[in-house]
Amino acid sequence: MPTRCNIRLATADDAETVVAMIRGLAEYEHQLEQVHATPAIIAAQMRSADPPFECLLAEEDGRALGFALFFRAYSTWLAAPMLFLEDLFVLPQSRGHGLGGALMRRLAEITIERGWKRIEWLVLDWNTPAQGFYADHGASHMKSWQVWGVSGAALERLAHKHG
């Protein structure tokens, strides 16, 4: 890890940096056109009375090199809250120096400090570097689970479906 690396919780003042990280991840995942986040939206959400997410920034000399965006979720089977990691990203030129591992360790500390019982996240099936990284940090692939979702026009149809 870079010698002067600092990991801290982001604030609304960091919204531009958070969006830059989101866009960096989306570009890596070849889905940049899917990003609707703007600094104004992110800042407003972070300033709200009940922010929908929290974000860690990994910095060196005040420059963001990576981030981890997460929120509280709930496990019915554990009957306990858990941390859902939405995004983890380290700038390409900063990879291989322990930043991702440092972010994961801090997420684990937060989970334990808050009395939450698990961390979960999604990984694209083609992203073998990320899969290897997570396996190296003690994670296991939940192979029997499939992600399903509904959004956009399908969500609208579902909301208005009768009977």
Characterization of the model:
The protein has 163 residues and is of the alpha+beta class. The chain has one domain: Aminopeptidase. The protein is built from 5 helices and 5 strands. Strands 1-2-3-4-5 form a 5-stranded mixed sheet, sandwiched between helices. Helix 3 links the parallel strand 4 (80-90) and strand 5. Helix 1 (15-28) packs across helix 2.
List keywords for this structure.
Aminopeptidase; five-stranded mixed sheet; 163 residues; 5 helices; single chain
Give a brief outline of the structure.
The chain has 163 residues and is of the alpha+beta class. Helix content is 34%, strand content 24%.
Q: Any idea how many domains?
A: 1
Quick one: overall form? globular
Q: Structural class of the secondary structure composition?
A: alpha+beta
**How far from one another are the termini?**
56 Å
Multimerization status: single chain
Which ranges are low-confidence, i.e. pLDDT below 50, for 5 or more consecutive residues?
none
Please identify which CATH superfamily we are dealing with.
Gcn5-related N-acetyltransferase (GNAT)
Q: Give the mean pLDDT.
A: 95
List the helices and strands and how they pair.
Elements: E1 5-9, H1 15-28, H2 39-47, E2 54-60, E3 63-75, E4 80-90, H3 99-113, E5 119-121, H4 128-136, H5 152-159
Helix pairs in contact: 1-2
